[in-house]
Structure formats: C-alpha cells, structure tokens
C-alpha cells in the first residue's frame, strides 16, 4: 500500500523536460479533459476572481500560467477575462520546449498570447514581472524547499498575487484516479503519472509550511472538490 504520510519523491514521466512525441500529445489532451471534468478549472477561476476583485478594468492585467501545457487554461482565461471586461497580457510558461511548440499550434488563433520555454528558476524567468501567476497541478512537481524558495521569488514578481491549484494527497483521491485512468485513459503516461501525482501532492500542513518559510502572511487556503487545494496569495 502506498505511503500517504509524506510526499513521494518519485519522478513522473512528465518531469523529463526533453520528453516529446505522440504519447506526450495524447497525455496533454487527456489532462485537459481530466482537469475540466474533475472541477479543476473552477478552482482557478474562483481564485482569480478573488485576486482581481476591485482591479481597475481600464488597466491591463498581466497573467502568467506556469506549466501551461497546450495552453487550454490560457484560452479559458482569455475568454473569462474578456467576458468580464478585463484587458489582459497572457503568458504561458513551460520548461519543455516540445510542449511550448504544441501550445503554439493549439493557440495559433490567439496571437496575443505569449509562450515561453523557460525554467521558473532561470534568470530569464526571474527578471519578468506579472500581476498574477497561476499554477494548476504544477507545484507538486517540486520539493518543499524548492517551493519555499519559489514562493519567496513570486512575492517580488507578482504585483497582485499568485494561485495554487493542486491536489490533496488522500487515499480516496489516489485510488479514484488510479481506477479512472486505468479504465478510461489511453495514455500510459497518464496511467503512470496521475496516481503518482497524488502521492507527490500535499496535505494542508505542507502547503502552510512552504508559505510560512517564504514569509507569506496574507493568503487563503480552501479544500475544493475533487480533492484540490485552492491557495490564494496576496503579494501587495
């Protein structure tokens, strides 16, 4: 039986930043579906509403999506913001160049969305400024120490704040996603990575530990269905 007491340090296939090809394409498509049907998108937009509450709609809001995949969240943010009268500058960040090329193809009708192949710990990324940074199923790929360091970095990069939308490590979440992916997925990467991502994910105290080490004081943390943590951090 898996150990749910601590975060797993096992690597996911997705962590290979040089991975490319048809299996990656299939995996990215399936992850979009999983995120949609398990309520993940709603968690992000609820958090975004909180961070942008009271923001002047005459100005431009700079939003970055970390681990952007094929850009599905960027397209959704574009539509969400437009419907509510926000002007945005959207940037997708992914450390895998193949994934960025896939996003460029997927978002070919969104020429205003910028896509960058960058590592979040690189000087090139650190030099950039955003108003809001989004991370959906992104942060569990990093250790506690890396997250504390990165959260400290985001305090200085974001004028409004950042959003964590990630998994609650729980036996029910693990066995549910394992059954769902074994039954419905056609991607061996999804079948391997999805259950492991639960084991690498968070209990509430672990997220609080990272926030505390980063010196972050103003935040909210809520549990959302299905087994998601929604963390909203205000940096201003």
Automatic annotation (TrEMBL):
Pfam families: Methyltransf_25 (PF13649). One of its GO terms (molecular function) is methyltransferase activity. InterPro entries: Methyltransf_25, SAM-dependent_MTases_sf. Residues 63-157 form the Methyltransferase domain. Keywords: Methyltransferase, Transferase. It comes from Chryseolinea soli. This is Methyltransferase domain-containing protein. It comes from the Bacteria. One of its GO terms (biological process) is methylation.
């Amino acid at each position: 039986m898996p150990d749910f007491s601590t975060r797993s340090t096992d690597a996911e296939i997705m962590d290979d930043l040089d991975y490319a090809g048809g299996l990656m394409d299939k995996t990215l498509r399936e992850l979009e579906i999983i995120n949609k049907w398990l309520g993940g998108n709603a968690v992000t937009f609820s958090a975004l509403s909180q961070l942008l509450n009271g923001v002047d709609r005459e100005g431009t809001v700079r939003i970055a999506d970390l681990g952007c995949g094929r850009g599905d969240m960027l397209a959704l943010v574009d539509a969400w913001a437009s419907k509510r009268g926000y002007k945005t500058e959207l940037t997708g960040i992914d450390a895998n160049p193949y994934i960025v090329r896939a996003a460029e193809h997927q978002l070919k009708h969104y020429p205003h969305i910028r896509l960058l192949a960058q590592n979040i710990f690189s000087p090139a990324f650190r030099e950039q400024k955003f108003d809001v940074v989004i991370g959906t199923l992104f942060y569990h790929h990093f250790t506690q120490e890396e997250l504390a360091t990165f959260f400290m970095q985001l305090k200085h990069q974001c004028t409004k704040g950042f959003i964590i939308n990630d998994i609650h490590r729980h036996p029910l979440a693990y066995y549910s996603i394992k059954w769902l992916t074994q039954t419905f997925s056609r991607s061996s990467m999804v079948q391997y990575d999805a259950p492991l991502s639960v084991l690498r994910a968070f209990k509430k105290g672990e997220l609080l530990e990272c926030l505390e080490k980063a010196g972050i004081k103003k935040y909210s943390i809520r549990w959302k269905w299905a087994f998601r943590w929604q963390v909203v951090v205000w940096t201003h």
